[in-house]
Specification:
The chain is mainly beta. It contains no helices and eleven strands. It is 0% helix and 50% strand. The termini are far apart.
Length: 123
């Protein structure tokens, strides 16, 4: 059974940085395409960023461009989300997911999800 496990979320001050990790188990690679989504209290889950199977293409929401960077290390079955210049509005539970196409920003197009990790940014 394939599982994704996120880690790295914590409370941080505005302007700070965090790196989230998404580790895959139960198969030989992290996933063909990997994405990060987030969900704030009372809001719908939203797309953050994604990366293609070879790392050659990445896609990001306008709200995080220039601040967040997604990467992957297939040798470790792991994907990462480097978050810099964090803002209070980045506070949410962050989920990683894998699917077929990194170009899609729709949650329904991703098949396997982790349980999420909480990120809180104080002002």
């Amino acid at each position: 059974q394939v599982q994704l496990v996120e880690s790295g979320g914590e409370l941080v001050q505005a302007g700070g940085s965090l790196r989230l990790t998404c580790a895959a188990s139960g198969r030989t690679s992290i996933g063909y395409a990997v994405a990060w989504f987030r969900q704030a209290p009372g809001k719908e889950r939203e797309f953050v960023t994604s990366i293609s199977w070879n790392g050659g293409s990445t896609y990001s929401a306008d709200s995080v461009k220039g601040r967040f960077t997604i990467s992957r290390d297939d040798a470790k079955n792991t994907a990462y989300l480097q978050m810099n210049s964090l803002k209070p509005e980045d506070t949410a539970v962050y989920f990683c997911a894998d699917g077929q196409w990194a170009s899609t920003t729709e949650a329904r197009d991703y098949d396997i999800w982790g349980q999420g990790t909480q990120v809180a940014v104080s002002s």
